Amino acid sequence: xxxxxxxxxxxxxxxxxxxxxxxxxxxxxxxxxxxxxxxxxxxxxxxxxxxxxxxxxxxxxxxxxxxxxxxxxxxxxxxxxxxxxxxxxxxxxxxxxxxxxxxxxxxxxxxxxxxxxxxxxxxxxxxxxxxxxxxxxxxxxxxxxxxxxxxxxxxxxxxxxxxxxxxxxxxxxxxxxxxxxxxxxxxxxxxxxxxxxxxxxxxxxxxxxxxxxxxxxxxxxxxxxx
Length: 226
Description:
The protein is an all-alpha fold. It is built from 9 helices and no strands. The longest helix has 21 residues, at 97-117. The model is unreliable at 1-5 (pLDDT under 50). InterPro entries: PAP2/HPO, PAP2/HPO_sf. The chain crosses the membrane at residues 21-41, 61-88, 147-166, 186-207. Keywords: Membrane, Transmembrane, Transmembrane helix. It holds the Pfam family PAP2.
């Protein structure tokens, strides 16, 4: 395998920063509204109650199975395994770089936000932010993980799958997880919306990194020196 086949790029690569600013602004706006605008809290409660009232057993179990598409740890392990295989075949550690970066970025950004906002999940406490110490519902890490990790997986598999399949890999799990986390009562609606905005923002940050141009020791990039 040539060194070119080891190129990993998270697509599409953003050009303008306006979208990034809008995503961050949207996340901050939701957070502020949860603190200052009570109708949004009532909407969260109404959506939870509606979901609770329309959750027959077949729908519950179907949603429960589908919701596992967004489990962060299995996705991270799968991405790492694929990256290591690609790295060994191409004799360069570059395929592993976006996997490590995704892990650091998601934990480094989402973790402190979840801890700091102290919001309970539906059925585990009040809907308000900063109301339940020890609870970590906001924003939805499930959504952030789904967006970031499937983008990384699509990048790793870009040389092996056709474009329509790669698009489905990036989009379908996000749509499914967005619906099921709210329907199952795992997250408030605004948890999920905030996670969606934050996940896309983090994905765009990862996509801007020129993985192929990052300096590596010769021992970790034998393909580049051949």
